[in-house]
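Human: I would love a firmer grasp of how sequence relates to backbone shape in proteins. Could you go through the record with me and say what the backbone is doing? Here is the record:
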Amino acid sequence: MIGKWISFEGGEGSGKTTLIEGLVEKLEERNLPYLVTREPGGVPVAEKIREILLEKTDSPMDPMTEAILFAASRRQHLVEKVLPALEEGKIVLMDRFVDSSVVYQGYARGLGMERIKALNEFATEGRLPLITFYLDIDPEKGLERIRKNKRTMNRLDYENLLFHKKIREGYQLLCQKEQRLQCISADKGPRELLEEVWQIIQSIL
């Protein structure tokens, strides 16, 4: 039996981590097999690439280099961890996938959404989640959440506000193009958000 693959997207501070933790409780209550993983990272090779991508340094990274590194990390993570879990019939909850690169590097970095989509189609051989939840929030609110929660800031968190606003624009554009994406307002309490997303997930399990 092939499992169900669900991914979660959103700008910084949109609440993906809290939402996934709540969904894990729902799955455990029902004794459903699952795997929680994230990008970039998830397996040793991809975690090393994650360190390069997210470490804050004074040395700027070329946008195309950034895009290729994300795609390389994604490929290793997919073949080593995600596909085997799906073959085992697990429900895979993934924090970020291809859509992040299409938006962050393709739209916000200006490399072109279609170009980055093509790069990642090559890296993943066209594999995509069954459904993707995009958690939509005003960038200023999202960044304020990060500061309040005292989460460790990464290189992308330190980008200027205009960059984060472009991230939101990119996701909203993608939601208009991709039926797979479910746009959910994250400007609500975590419990309300969890119940809204869980109702949709139940319909596909």
Notes: The chain has eight helices and five strands. The mean pLDDT is 94.
